[in-house]
């Protein structure tokens, strides 16, 4: 707001300095943020990965990596886990997405609601639920006498697949929605059977959606931290190894090298997506008509079985965690009570409040910065706008684990002026914001595109200054978008573990870390209670968000 | 107040959008910028509005040099093709927005908004949101909004292009009435020559960033100065000098001096006299009935001709006809 004031100092200035200053500031501050808190940490990591212990420049760290005991095994395990989870999620995800978008099954509302559950909680809640059901003291083992070895690969696969499934479904649903109904009409007129139409229109139309969902699931799985700790058992995984190297043994160079390797799959996926989106654009006509869902028994009855099995599994696992948090002595005395909610160890509920503060900070600051950046880019010269746009969408290619690692390298360095930030809640909030920068940025840019340029021009001709136009026109139109960006950042910040695990300290912990620590210490029921609290907070804010967006949208149109 | 534009140039990334534009718009004048898409007409309008800055050239409104005046201080009104109403405000709030910025009292704003909405005959829809209005109604509100601030100049950027034919005709009449009643100079961009002919006092015909011809609608239709204008404003038969010299030498009397290939004869279809006769040297190739007139495609003396005739006297394909052109019906244009 100092922008307008400083401009009024010189009212006789012939040029429109206030507006100019506004556009400079809106682009400069977010850009500096990106440089300082995204480019700088990553650059530090790149540099560190090529500098060995004696300060020599070279690939010594990468060679050392090969000789580090367990790393090769961990890499193999992680890749296998990633590939399996991806396969499971693509098949199930497509079935779910197709069922919701195209079929005539009942219970779509239930399925959509269930798919929200994993988003509300840290990923390890699914691992926790599986242990309550199938673990050594699991309900199923006790009452049905079936004993499965859930710790290790099977548990990891299940937990990760259930966690990543909703994200795959979101992407695939969007892909299915894009196909124009008129393609199907045309194919029917030409005499194609519905089976042929499925393979010739539906599948090719969602090709890129499948590709992008596959990469999302793969990356989520190989960089997931929570489930690896909770249900991994003796299976060595890359995420744990990297954590041990850096936080345990302080081998920064080797850690940086692993971080670099973890950038590879997402780098590749980003490249493929860019190529894909270029190829797919242009095919979309204006006013595309989405296909109407129809009931076909031969297709929809089996589909219904698959969809219900998948969504009931998710619901069951999450519900078990909530149930277990109230059970007095799992699984022996199933009477209910609140005794596990009296958490006093590992900081009690303080981490929950810290998470709340950090998430609000990341969401408020983040939404303002993203809005400013999107606005600034609109007025920036094309070359600058393109460059900054590219940097702004890059964080999606950096897994949280790698970002957290890079933050350690950049901000845990003695002598750096930025070291003061290390160990502060402020830095954690910033890390969360840049972790989810791309999605927020793209949403904001898309929202801003919905503000017709003519509206701004018209306001300017009527005599509105840039600030006037912003407050009276752009912000009201953008309201629903900004709200959803705010709650996206908030909810993600509340549950993320992989980035922040490197930034917490004994005196500064977060809710998701607390769940992990409680579980590690053997207080599984307390971990469940803590998870339930997190889900409650996140679910409540999600509900508030839906209401707020609905109200804002109704007022608009 | 007169708007004077001198030697205005603008290019985008190396390609010339406007090339040495000179134009003046007088008090009360209705000026149309007419031309095909990409001719620079919208660029010119946006520069006048201050939404774009020219590379070089001068622009004055009365005594005021507009170069240093930002859009919002120019005091112009503008209406775009579509989607320019503020979607978060009612029709009345949209119309009153310009006054709200000028910090007028609530009373004055609502009074003025009501007055302007009455002017465009939308008083009954004052409290509607833009999405509750039809395309034509939205454009009326946009017009009222532009008028509400007592602009010194109104800019219309293809305001009718997105509308249905019937609505377009109504709104065209509306704009004409408003212009007559308020006497505010208007500059309108359009690619529709009929619209330009009907509304303007002065038509500026543009092509490839240059002004081809400026004149009254009659000037442009009856006395086009270039081949482009002759072709763009209605239809014409354009005939090379060489051919005229051989086949219709009587037309050469009005030809200005110049090389053969630099000047062409332009003969409007309705100026061609067509008489059915057995001994005629022309043949009808096609007849298109258009209601009030019929359009003919003829072969005559080795060329294809377009003719229009009001008479319905049994013209049929393959019929021999005699064709004639009076010297006064031929205009010479730069090729």
Describe the structure.
The complex is a heterodimer of chains A (557) and B (335). Chain A has 557 residues and is mainly alpha-helical. Helices cover 73% and strands 1% of the residues of chain A. Chain A contains 24 helices and two strands. A two-stranded antiparallel ribbon of chain A has the order 1-2. In chain A, strand 1 (327-329) and strand 2 (333-336) form a beta hairpin. Chain B is α+β, with helices and mostly antiparallel strands and 335 residues long. Chain B is 29% helix and 31% strand. Chain B has helices at 41-49, 71-74, 91-101, 106-119, 135-148, 165-182, 193-199, 217-222, 227-232, 241-247, and strands at residues 3-12, 15-25, 30-34, 56-61, 64-65, 76-79, 153-157, 186-190, 202-207, 210-215, 237-240, 263-267, 273-276, 282-289, 294-300, 303-309, 320-324, 330-334. In chain B, the strands form four sheets. A six-stranded mixed beta sheet of chain B has the order 6-7-8-3-9-10, with helices on both faces. In chain B, helix 3 runs parallel beside helix 5 (135-148). The longest helix of chain B has 18 residues, at 165-182. Chains A and B meet through helix 21 and helix 22 of A and helix 2, strand 6, helix 3 and helix 5 of B.
List keywords for this structure.
heterodimer, A: 557 residues, mainly alpha, two-stranded antiparallel ribbon, 2 strands, 1% strand, globular, disordered N terminus, B: 335 residues, alpha+beta, 6-stranded mixed sheet, 5-stranded antiparallel sheet, 10 helices, 18 strands
Outline the secondary-structure elements:
The complex is a heterodimer of chains A (557) and B (335).
Chain A: H1 2-8, H2 17-49, H3 60-67, H4 71-101, H5 108-120, H6 124-134, H7 139-144, H8 153-178, H9 181-189, H10 194-205, H11 207-222, H12 226-231, H13 238-248, H14 252-280, H15 297-326, E1 327-329, E2 333-336, H16 350-379, H17 382-393, H18 400-411, H19 425-435, H20 437-449, H21 453-461, H22 466-495, H23 511-520, H24 524-556
Antiparallel strand pairs in A: 1-2
Helix pairs in contact in A: 1-2, 2-14, 2-16, 2-18, 3-14, 4-8, 4-11, 4-15, 5-8, 5-15, 6-8, 6-15, 8-11, 11-14, 13-14, 14-18, 15-24, 16-17, 16-19, 16-20, 16-22, 16-23, 20-22, 21-22, 22-24, 23-24
Chain B: E1 3-12, E2 15-25, E3 30-34, H1 41-49, E4 56-61, E5 64-65, H2 71-74, E6 76-79, H3 91-101, H4 106-119, H5 135-148, E7 153-157, H6 165-182, E8 186-190, H7 193-199, E9 202-207, E10 210-215, H8 217-222, H9 227-232, E11 237-240, H10 241-247, E12 263-267, E13 273-276, E14 282-289, E15 294-300, E16 303-309, E17 320-324, E18 330-334
Parallel strand pairs in B: 3-8, 3-9, 6-7, 7-8
Antiparallel strand pairs in B: 1-2, 1-4, 4-5, 9-10, 11-12, 12-18, 13-17, 14-15, 14-17, 15-16
